[in-house]
Design goal:
The complex is a heterodimer of chains A (278) and B (610). The radius of gyration of chain A is 23 Å and the shape is elongated. With 278 residues, chain A is of the alpha+beta class. Chain A has five helices and 18 strands. In chain A, the strands form three sheets. In chain A, strands 5, 8, 9, 10, 11, 13, 16 and 18 form an eight-stranded antiparallel beta sheet that branches. Chain B is mainly alpha-helical. The relative contact order of chain B is 0.11. Classes of the chains: A alpha+beta (278), B mainly alpha (610).
Chain lengths: 278, 610
């Protein structure tokens, strides 16, 4: 027993002295960034593994990670992913991808992952101005909303593109503050559909999530037919769901998002959607 | 104490009982004074600085009014509330000490341009004993001294049952804990209340066979009440132990005697609290109830645990169960591993206390040596030291394990359990030393072995504590994988915005022409103290707090806590970039980032056309 504890004490002491030097140095980061920057192509994604090192990746390569990329809905549209990893971690964005190249720089590993990129046929966040929006009280008529600056406004509700914080991660999406007893409908005509309609939804802002407890529902329809509904509550996070649209693939359709809420206090829904061929 | 524990001569006894603890006090306080300057100022600490100086200002006004022949003026409700309303959610003892220390020991630059930064009128240059160049160090000095005293108290507590070497191990381990060390050197209350816990526990233990300690127990509890509200719980833990050791009375259908310690606590505790806290003077009942109500219904702040952001009591049963694990897993991941291993060994040694064993390390005065009475209510029974330690350890942890209890303070909220864990660790070390000595025959080696082994067993805790500074809050141990391992496990990295200190030189060098700076979680009181300490020039801008004001700034910091992601998003939008200008890391783990507004906003960027 004495020997066991003594060995433990020695291991812990040595680890304590050595561990700080196992962190990647500035030189490691500079070399890793140099490699990525040299081989980076438009449309590539750069990620950190573990995710907590994200600020360090952006410190060196932030100019290659504009807000739309850093706040992406998911990584399906990226065929080449540069992963700067440490301690054997792997980024979730690389799931299903094939390792194409690896280089080590001290305590950092740069990996290039390759996967078939999803072809996006329609990006609902980027094309939000093509939509029209209405508000309808239960049993009432649909009232058209007006576009004021960067947002649709009506019936006490407003919707527009935002950088959202959902589940403590930043996401680009359409942000909307729903109203009780009102169905907000955002309708996109002329959408070229792919085999899949990927929709993600969640509640924005940590303080609002703490303050309210209502549930927001996002109903998704294509050409009048319901594809499904996503629910967002304080604990639901960034809820990503792919709706199969194979029957409508390649066709032009009208896609409609209907937003309702049971208790509107402190609810701010964020959602994003892409029609795509995975 | 048994005969073999008693030193042969008074000189040796003095060395063991007084000189060794004194050395530990000096070493601990010196260690902290040597390093506290690299630890930033947290939200709470900055408010305590302000309150401490204002409290000192009130004492000054008492003296001034006395000299002016109007002694009652400072004691009017308006005068008392005018000062003591400030930060009245916490009792005043430590803040009074911080204020007195500041007044005595700072190097006064108060009558220069910095005069405006003080919360009390500065009428001239202060005559002081200028021990410290930074004013914040002068404020922190009492906390640092108290932390030193805490080590001595841990030693004396351990000496109730252990030999000097094992007790010294317990004492060293009680301070060599990264999270405790973080709290022990700052002007807050979490380390002081941990010290008070040991003080009251020690007095209670001794009071079971000594009336003098019974009286002192009440005095110490009063001081603890005036330190932090954790003290409310002390009598419960002590009562559980007392009922346990007197369980024989219940079997005989006789109520146990009410011990002097409890009488003293009931009488002197509230009295001392009242005397020390002027805020209570004009409305004692209402304000005591308000103080209790404030902490009974405390808001659940945000806190990261196992990758989740917790800010409300969980409703689902699975989350409730996960939440219950918080203090246990946090302990497992933050105490040095060797300390925990020693505590496990020590627990076994306490369990085997009554067995006939040549290697016995737990020494306890036998019962029935004294005549029992309410003055010595533990004289005729075994005092059950193992149960005593177990209650002191389990009590604070159990409170924080309740799913309805907020966890925003992390380890600091159950830190009062740890000195008792360290006594167990000391017992473990004592047992290992005894085993090792029994295996060695060479006399010189036998003599040298206890100190050598004690040093070896303390080395990992000291090394881990040294390694963690100044970011002890983000420290995780060998089991968790260090700072990086803790971050990967989704454990809390920091709170209070203290970690901005390493960013200050960069912020000063990159101060925007507009002087519009966003300080995020760094309170204005902290910016003022950084300025008074000479770490920021006078007049550094501060656009204020909140989500809206960030856009008005040209340079800003974001403290990296899980729930603060929203502020990083606001910085991206305000400054037109996702690229920080600076990242402060500890062992590669980011703690704070600085962003600067781009000179020209880049064109709207798309990912790439669909």
């Amino acid at each position: 027993m004495v020997a066991l504890v003594v060995v433990l004490a020695l291991i812990e002491t040595v680890n304590s002295l050595v561990a700080p030097s196992r962190a990647p140095s500035d030189k490691d980061w500079a070399a890793a960034a140099w490699l990525v920057r040299g081989q980076f192509r438009a449309g590539d994604l750069i990620v950190a593994a573990p995710a907590w090192a994200d600020q360090l990746v952006r410190l060196r390569l932030g100019d290659l990670l504009p807000v739309p990329v850093a706040g992406r809905m998911d990584s399906a549209r990226f065929g080449r992913i540069w992963e700067i990893s440490q301690r054997g971690a792997r980024a979730a964005d690389t799931r299903g991808a094939t390792l194409a190249a690896t280089s080590r720089f001290g305590h950092l590993t740069v990996k290039r992952w390759q996967k078939p990129a999803a072809t996006v046929t329609f990006d609902f966040v980027a094309e939000w101005r093509k939509a029209s929006m209405t508000a309808m009280r239960s049993g009432g008529v649909a009232v058209p909303c007006t576009m004021t600056g960067q947002r649709f406004q009506c019936a006490g509700a407003s919707l527009g593109p935002e950088l959202l914080e959902v589940d403590t991660t930043l996401r680009n999406g359409l942000g909307v503050e729903p109203v009780e007893g009102v169905t907000l409908a955002l309708e996109f005509p002329g959408v070229t559909l792919g085999r899949e309609l990927m929709v993600a939804a969640g509640l924005h802002n940590v303080w609002l999530r703490k303050s309210g407890d209502g549930k927001v529902r996002l109903r998704v329809l294509a050409n009048g037919g319901e594809l499904g509904t996503l629910a967002a509550s304080s604990a639901s996070g960034w809820n990503l769901h792919g709706f199969a649209t194979e029957a409508l693939a390649g066709k032009i359709a009208t896609v409609r998002f209907e937003i309702t809420v049971d208790k509107a206090h402190a609810r701010h829904l964020g959602f994003a959607a892409e029609a795509r061929n995975p | 104490m048994t005969d073999d524990a008693l030193p042969p001569g008074a000189r040796t006894r003095w060395r063991r009982e007084w000189l060794l603890p004194l050395v530990l006090v000096v070493a601990t306080s010196s260690w902290m004074l040597a390093v506290e300057g690299s630890q930033g100022i947290g939200r709470d600490e900055s408010q305590y600085f302000r309150a401490a100086e204002r409290y000192w200002g009130w004492f000054e006004s008492v003296w001034t009014n006395l000299r002016q022949g109007n002694p009652a003026k400072a004691f009017t409700r308006a005068a008392v509330d005018g000062t003591w309303d400030d930060n009245h959610e916490h009792p005043p003892l430590m803040k009074i000490l911080y204020g007195v220390s500041w007044r005595l020991f700072h190097t006064c630059k108060c009558n220069g341009p910095q005069r405006v930064l003080h919360p009390i009128p500065i009428r001239g240059r202060h005559v002081t004993l200028p021990l410290f160049t930074r004013e914040s160090t002068a404020f922190r000095f009492p906390a640092i001294l108290l932390a030193g005293l805490g080590v001595a108290l841990a030693y004396w507590l351990a000496r109730c049952w252990l030999k000097p070497t094992a007790s010294a191990v317990a004492a060293v381990l009680s301070v060599a804990q990264p999270h405790y060390f973080f709290h022990a050197q700052i002007s807050c209350f979490d380390a002081p209340i941990t010290v008070m816990t040991v003080l009251v526990a020690l007095a209670y233990w001794k009071s079971l066979r000594s009336p003098r300690w019974g009286i002192l127990c009440g005095v110490f509890w009063g001081l603890a009440l005036a330190t932090k509200h954790n003290a409310w719980l002390f009598p419960i833990f002590l009562l559980v132990h007392y009922l346990w050791i007197r369980r024989g009375d219940f079997r005989r259908l006789r109520p146990p005697r009410i011990p002097l310690a409890f009488v003293s606590m009931a009488a002197l505790g509230p009295l001392l609290l009242f005397m020390l806290w002027p805020w209570l003077w004009h409305a004692p009942v209402d304000r005591t109830l308000a103080w209790i109500g404030r902490h009974m219904h405390h808001e659940h702040y945000n806190f990261e645990y196992l990758g989740r952001n917790w800010n409300l009591p969980p409703k689902e049963i699975s989350l409730k169960l996960l939440r219950v694990t918080f203090p246990f897993l946090s302990t497992l991941f933050t105490l040095p591993v060797t300390t925990m291993a020693l505590a496990a060994v020590g627990t076994v040694s306490f369990l085997r206390r009554r067995r006939a064993d040549s290697l016995k390390v737990i020494m306890e005065e036998p019962a029935a040596a004294l005549r029992p009475s309410w003055l010595r209510p533990g004289a005729d029974v075994d005092r059950a030291p193992g149960v005593f330690l177990a209650i002191q350890i389990a009590g604070p942890i159990a409170i924080i394990a309740l799913p309805s209890t907020p966890i925003f303070g992390g380890v600091k909220h159950f830190m009062p359990a740890f000195p008792f864990v360290c006594v167990l660790a000391g017992a473990g070390a004592g047992w290992l030393i005894a085993i090792a000595r029994s295996l060695v025959t060479a006399p010189r080696l036998r003599r040298a072995l206890p100190a050598a082994l004690a040093g070896l067993l303390c080395a990992p805790a000291v090394a881990e504590t040294h390694r963690s500074h100044p970011d002890g809050l983000g420290f995780y141990n060998l089991i968790a994988g260090g700072f990086a391992g803790g971050a990967s496990l989704g454990m809390n990295r920091q709170f209070w915005g203290y970690s901005a200190l390493p960013m200050l030189p960069f912020i000063v060098a990159h101060r925007p022409a507009s002087n519009r700076i966003y300080w995020h979680d760094v309170l204005h009181d902290a910016i003022i103290m950084y300025t008074r300490d000479g770490r920021l020039p006078l007049g550094m801008g501060d656009v204020g707090v909140g989500e809206q004001v960030l856009a008005q700034s040209d340079l800003g910091i974001v403290i990296l806590e899980k729930h603060f992601t929203v502020y990083e998003g606001l910085a991206w939008q305000a400054y037109g970039t996702t690229q920080p200008s600076r990242v402060y890391t500890h062992e590669g783990v980011p703690f704070v980032v600085t962003y600067e507004r781009r000179k020209t906003q880049p064109p709207r960027q798309e990912i790439f056309p669909p």
